[in-house]
Amino acid sequence: MKKITLLAYSLIVAVILSLPACKGSGDEPKDYNAMISKSPWKIISATLDGKDEFSDLNECYKDDLFRYQSGGSYSLEEGTTKCNTNDPQIFSEGTWSYDPDTKLLTMNQTSGSGQDGTFLVKELSSTKMVLEAPITFNGVKKTLVQQLVPVP
């Protein structure tokens, strides 16, 4: 009986060891910084504590672009529709970093007006980025969630 059990155990181990190491494309580490900086991003939805805020935005804000450079700088740029024709094309600049362990995207504004702070990256793929951040709005703490898509 011991010989049969030992033989069965040896066969199982041999089969497992003889299998090729399977490493599909989904197992490979992603280069998140390259994914973020590959193309500009624009917001397609924004909620504040689950309530849609994007549909209430003026159309001239809906096509603004977030451009993350691979060197760690970013700019917020007017899209094709400007709220004021005299507005500069780039209205905010700064630095950014992404930590894949904590999933935090940090933006530090150095000039202009716009968005900075630390955002939890809820989802990141080549077709979508979802950011979440606690904000204080009229003295009340709320959760902002933005969904962005890359712009070719």
Tell me about this structure:
With 152 residues, the protein is an alpha+beta fold. Helices cover 18% and strands 43% of the residues. The N and C termini lie far apart (67 Å). The N terminus is likely disordered.
Query: How is the biggest beta sheet arranged?
Result: 9 strands, antiparallel
Class from secondary-structure proportions: alpha+beta
What's the CATH architecture name?
Beta Barrel
Strand order of the largest sheet: 2-1-9-8-7-6-5-4-3
Mean pLDDT: 82
Termini separation: 67 Å
Q: Which fold name corresponds to the CATH topology?
A: Lipocalin
Radius of gyration: 23 Å
| Helix-strand sequence | HHEEHEEEEEEE
What topology does this entry show?
Elements: H1 2-18, H2 32-37, E1 41-48, E2 51-52, H3 59-62, E3 65-68, E4 73-77, E5 90-99, E6 104-112, E7 117-124, E8 129-137, E9 140-150
Antiparallel strand pairs: 1-2, 1-9, 3-4, 4-5, 5-6, 6-7, 7-8, 8-9
Please summarize what this structure is.
The protein has 152 residues and is an alpha+beta fold.
Task: Give the key terms.
152 residues, alpha+beta, Lipocalin, 9-stranded antiparallel beta sheet, 9 strands, globular
